[in-house]
Specification:
Blueprint: E1 2-6, H1 9-26, E2 31-34, H2 41-52, E3 62-65, E4 67-69, H3 80-89, E5 99-100, H4 109-122, E6 128-131, E7 153-156, H5 159-165, E8 179-182, H6 185-188, E9 193-198, H7 204-212, E10 230-235
Parallel strand pairs: 1-10, 2-3, 2-6, 3-5, 6-9, 9-10
Antiparallel strand pairs: 4-8, 7-8
Helix pairs in contact: 1-2
The chain binds 2-amino-2-deoxy-6-O-phosphono-alpha-D-glucopyranose.
Family: Belongs to the glucosamine/galactosamine-6-phosphate isomerase family. NagB subfamily.
Pfam families: Glucosamine_iso
Pathway: Amino-sugar metabolism; N-acetylneuraminate degradation; D-fructose 6-phosphate from N-acetylneuraminate: step 5/5
């Protein structure tokens, strides 16, 4: 695992966007796995700026969602589908058929999970997966104690994650769904390159356990230690317990 310490979130976003731009020059139709949350926004902003400046052509890029809430009405602004469309797909000017994600409103959620896991393989696999990290060490929505071999499946959120994410739902925890679909840890580990960005003091403990702790289901992000090509980009605050 490679750990890169940068000055701040903007620098981290620019560094990772540079890496994505390099990938797109080598492989214009690369499949980019994208995470949601506040942390990766500087990556998407920096990549969009590069595309608009003409320094990279992302018109053939394909985008794959990492996870999704279950049960939000179609088009809900805080569904991860809406979020990825707004933050990544539309700014990059990509057509809807360059975007794939799990169906959080499916009647048969289990079948939707299996279908998405298979769709990722059929698409050739994720070339570069962007990850954030939860304060409890989760990646995607793989909460502590998720199997390190898990596949895309339905999960129940911990109270901590629902509290953390209430800020996207008018600070009202009752609006935060209890259930989600997430790529499993085993699914995530199949991406060719994993890039985790963590910024801010609040992530310092989770980052230390991810990078320096044992590989453990209690800290799902520690599974990155098992991957042959994993990069962890942290700002100085998130690196403060390393
Ligand atoms: C959610 C997402 C994760 C993300 C995490 C941290 O739980 N499912 O993919 O990494 O939030 O979000 P933030 O970057 O806003 O702290």
């Amino acid at each position: 695992m490679e750990v890169v310490i940068v000055k701040d979130a903007k620098a981290g976003g620019e560094l990772i966007a540079d890496g994505i731009a390099d990938l797109l020059r080598r492989k214009p139709d690369a499949l980019l796995g994208v995470a949601t949350g506040s942390t990766p926004i500087p990556i998407y902003d920096a990549l969009t700026a590069q595309v608009r400046a003409g320094s990279v052509d992302a018109s053939r890029a394909r985008i794959a969602q990492l996870d999704e809430y279950v049960g939000l009405p179609a088009g809900h602004p805080e569904s991860y589908r809406s979020t990825v469309l707004r933050q990544v797909v539309e700014p990059l000017g990509l057509p809807a058929d360059h975007f794939m994600g799990p169906d959080g409103s499916a009647e048969d959620v289990q079948a939707a999970c299996e279908a998405y896991d298979k769709a990722l393989v059929d698409a050739g696999g994720v070339d570069l997966q962007i990850l954030g990290i939860g304060t409890d060490g989760h990646i995607g929505f793989n909460e502590p104690c998720s199997s390190l071999a898990s596949r895309t499946r339905i999960k129940t959120l911990t109270e901590q994650t629902r509290v953390d994410n209430a800020r996207f739902f008018d600070d009202d925890i009752d609006q935060v769904p209890h259930h989600v679909i997430t790529q499993g840890i085993g699914t995530i580990l199949e991406a060719r390159h994993l890039v985790l960005l963590a910024t801010g003091e609040g992530k310092a403990e989770a980052v230390a356990q991810t990078v320096e702790g044992p590989v453990a289901a209690l800290v799902p992000a520690s599974a990155l230690q098992l991957h042959p090509h994993a990069t962890v980009v942290v700002d100085e605050a998130a690196a403060s317990k390393l």
